[in-house]
Amino acid sequence: MVEIRNLRRDDLTRVYGLDSQRLKPWPALNAPFEGAWCILRSGDESTPHSHHEYEIFIAVAGSAELDVDGVRHDFAAGDIAHLPPGCMHKVVNQGPEDFEYYGIWWDTEMTTEFVTKHQGRSA
């Protein structure tokens, strides 16, 4: 059975200097990862940070710059970026439009928990 979770643009949470909606909690979701829809407003930049998780960003609308360890990269709708654990990163939007992307992150603990929970079950 398909379950669709709608983006609630009027109810986004401000975190890391951008507006977002987290993927979890979502009881129907059975996945070894976490994620968030992110909107970086025109003229804003996200808070620089690093973490132990692996992460990918999928650019959905607009364009921005992705700053990873002090090196800036153009990042536009249709692009996907892989961020390894420990890298310092932020997204910078100096353009006239909001920039929207989806971030997905995972680590070995999430993966191990998922595998343990589903060991012996069929897909």
Give a structural overview:
By secondary structure, the protein is mostly beta strands. It has one domain (9-116): Jelly Rolls. It is built from 1 helix and 9 strands. The protein has one helix spanning 108-118; strands at residues 13-15, 18-22, 34-40, 54-61, 63-68, 71-76, 80-83, 89-92, 99-106. A 6-stranded antiparallel sheet has the order 1-2-3-9-4-7. A 3-stranded antiparallel sheet has the order 6-5-8, with no helix packed on it. The longest helix is centred in the C-terminal third of the chain and has 11 residues, at 108-118. The mean pLDDT is 94.
Keywords:
1 helix; 41% strand; mainly beta; 123 residues; Jelly Rolls; six-stranded antiparallel sheet; single chain; three-stranded antiparallel sheet
List the helices and strands and how they pair.
Layout: E1 13-15, E2 18-22, E3 34-40, E4 54-61, E5 63-68, E6 71-76, E7 80-83, E8 89-92, E9 99-106, H1 108-118
Antiparallel strand pairs: 1-2, 2-3, 3-9, 4-7, 4-9, 5-6, 5-8
Number of strands: 9
CATH homologous superfamily grouping: Jelly Rolls
Mean of all residue-level pLDDT scores: 94
Order of SSEs: EEEEEEEEEH
Radius of gyration: 16 Å
| Unreliable sequence segments | none
Multimerization status: single chain
DSSP strand content: 35-45%
Instruction: Name the overall outline.
Output: globular
Widest sheet, order of strands: 1-2-3-9-4-7
Largest sheet: 6 strands, antiparallel
Architecture per CATH nomenclature, i.e. the level-2 architecture: Sandwich
Helical content (DSSP H or I, runs of 4+): under 10%
